[in-house]
Specification:
It is a single chain. By secondary structure, the chain is an all-alpha fold. It has one domain (about 20-80). Helix content is about 70%, strand content about 0%.
Length: about 80
């Protein structure tokens, strides 16, 4: 256990490279389902698919960020109209 703690202390995360994996067919299906309840521009959907071709995790982050941003914009507009 102590050896693992010592290794963690001296672990240099800057020297490591992150490995990215393209999205699988199942991942693409889940990604598409995330967009189903929303009206989105086709450009955004196609961009998410293009990102997923290289990095599945980044595509999910892109979709989540887009949806959260849109939700915040809707809330701001609703509060302004009151």
């Amino acid at each position: 256990m102590y050896k693992a703690l010592i290794e963690d202390i001296f672990y240099d995360s800057e020297g490591t490279e992150e490995t990215t994996f393209p999205a699988t067919d199942e991942d693409l299906l889940i990604l598409t389902e995330k967009f189903l309840g929303f009206e989105i521009p086709s450009k955004v959907f196609l961009q998410a698919i293009a990102i997923a071709d290289y990095d599945g995790a980044a595509a999910f982050r892109y979709v989540d960020n887009y949806l959260i941003t849109q939700q915040h914009l809707r809330l701001i507009l609703l509060n302004r109209d009151r």
